[in-house]
Amino acid sequence: MRHLAYAAALVCCLAATLPLVPAFGLRRMRRVGLLLLAIGCGATPFVVWDLFASRAGQWHFDPAQTLPPRLLGLPLEEWAFFLVIPFAAIASYEAIGEVLRRRR
């Protein structure tokens, strides 16, 4: 079960923030193209950094805590991290903004 640790953490982040979209009517989050562009712009330098650092041996991903499949040497969970965490951050930011707008 330990090999599911990283994936489980990502699922929990997504499960906690995905309901914010319908709960607060976050219309900006429904603009998928714009959302993916924002995530891609933020994720690209970190993916490149991850690739170089892991290949240079500066860090590694514990096979005991990740799923076996790799893409360009990175576990699938690491690729999902760069989608899930920015989504969670943007959804949280938008939800807080909506709460503040409603309070005014």
UniProtKB/TrEMBL annotation:
GO cellular component: membrane
Claim: Nucleus is one of the keywords in the record: no
GO biological process: carotenoid biosynthetic process
Highest taxon of the lineage: Bacteria
Main localization (coarse): membrane
Coiled-coil portions: none
Domain Lycopene cyclase: 10-95
Keyword Nucleotide-binding on entry: no
Annotated compartments: Membrane
Keywords assigned by UniProt, alphabetized: Carotenoid biosynthesis, Isomerase, Membrane, Transmembrane, Transmembrane helix
Molecular-function annotations in GO: intramolecular lyase activity; lycopene beta cyclase activity
Entry-linked NCBIfam families: CarR_dom_SF
Protein's name according to its UniProt entry: Lycopene cyclase domain-containing protein
